[in-house]
Amino acid sequence: MRFCPYAQRTRLFLAAKGIEHETINIHLKQKPKWFLLEKNPVGKVPVLEKDGEMVFESLVCNEYLDHAYPEHCLTPRDPVEKMRQTMLLSVFDQMVMSHYYSYLRASQTGDYSALSKKFGFGLQHLEKALTEPFFGGNQPGALDYNLWPWFERFSTIPNRSEELSERRVPRLAAWMERMLEQPAVKACYMPYELYSQFVTSFAAGDPDYDAGLG
Amino acid sequence: MRFCPYAQRTRLFLAAKGIEHETINIHLKQKPKWFLLEKNPVGKVPVLEKDGEMVFESLVCNEYLDHAYPEHCLTPRDPVEKMRQTMLLSVFDQMVMSHYYSYLRASQTGDYSALSKKFGFGLQHLEKALTEPFFGGNQPGALDYNLWPWFERFSTIPNRSEELSERRVPRLAAWMERMLEQPAVKACYMPYELYSQFVTSFAAGDPDYDAGLG
């Protein structure tokens, strides 16, 4: 699904590693039977298919890509650093990402003062953890690409909160600027107008998964 | 928390690997401030503390134990097998475990016919994947211990559904018998009466985390 942040995680890996592939988009509200029966019983995207093998769950997909195409490996090779990144991703999941859809809905009405505080609290944990230009060090790594899809979307939320500002999260703001310059990020980038069209349809309860297509 | 299935995952690893440790239980509805500030910002158990380092998220905790105490390693060393186990755990999370608390509540009223079908559908995926005595092969491994806490609880649900029966899931039923014989499972086992006491208090909206103590 073109607007799915989880699928984007894997598209970013594919682009950063330069792996040739074919993309098949599915309609998430009307999932094709072949998808549920043959690809992923849980019904979620992304799914990678290679030589008849199915790999699902965005994080597993990305680890799989680093395993199957070990050149330009994005996943930390040091197991302790890998665990640190997994824990940080879990903090993000539970303290930031979990508020994302409420945030999107609230952005339609402009009233997200209560959400904003929770959001900001979670973001501060990431801000503190970002001690180098990227979460992966001097170059973007797995955690950078796995976090990015939400940050790309944050920046398109209308009247978005102060919590995401340079004043509150200077390191994250600079990291976002750096990320926007990455060729993989550019290759997978979705323009603001398309997100906006999708978000409006999503908030109205009838997501337009084909927004912007022909 | 003594009744938390996620904390039990890590207790099982500690027992299976024979690692000396001290356990501190916390009240999940009235979390101590020191826990949230110093141990895990997300506020969940388990948390491992070693030499001042904090590790949280049950799966990360268990991988950490295998890393810090490499003898009798439970996590698959083959990255592809490890990914297969992660995907299977995700199928379990989303197709079985996600219904667990609704199931518990329904068990109080005896009406879980609709849930039972969903539950059974997810269990069939595990049944199919269990081609050896244990998910880890001839001996229990990471996936066996990471799944077990829910199966221990399933067997204590009153009037539990046919979906969990030997007739429907013969391999899983035999696996459960084998798991019950494992020293680590015995060491962390909670008797039916205690679960029952806890489940009743949980369903009534006032979980008794100290059930059976003092």
From TrEMBL, chains A, B:
Keyword Transferase: yes
UniProt keyword Mitochondrion present: no
GO cellular component, one term: cytoplasm
EC number: 1.20.4.2, 1.8.5.1, 2.5.1.18
Residues of the GST N-terminal domain: 1-73
Alphabetical UniProt keywords: Oxidoreductase, Transferase
Domain GST C-terminal: 78-202
Molecular functions (GO terms): glutathione dehydrogenase (ascorbate) activity; glutathione transferase activity; methylarsonate reductase activity
Xref: InterPro entries: Glutathione-S-Trfase_C-like, Glutathione-S-Trfase_C_sf, Glutathione_S-Trfase, Glutathione_S-Trfase_N, GST_omega, GST_Omega/HSP26, Thioredoxin-like_sf
Domain of life: Eukaryota
Catalytic activity from the UniProt record: RX + glutathione = an S-substituted glutathione + a halide anion + H(+); L-dehydroascorbate + 2 glutathione = glutathione disulfide + L-ascorbate; methylarsonate + 2 glutathione + H(+) = methylarsonous acid + glutathione disulfide + H2O
Coiled-coil stretches noted in the UniProt entry, renumbered to this chain: none
GO BP of this protein: glutathione metabolic process
Any Pfam family: GST_C_2
Role according to the record: Exhibits glutathione-dependent thiol transferase activity. Has high dehydroascorbate reductase activity and may contribute to the recycling of ascorbic acid. Participates in the biotransformation of inorganic arsenic and reduces monomethylarsonic acid (MMA).
PANTHER family the UniProt entry points to: GLUTATHIONE S-TRANSFERASE OMEGA (PTHR43968:SF6), PTHR43968
Family indicated by similarity: Belongs to the GST superfamily. Omega family.
Name of this protein: Glutathione S-transferase omega
Biological classification of the source: Eukaryota, Metazoa, Chordata, Cephalochordata, Leptocardii
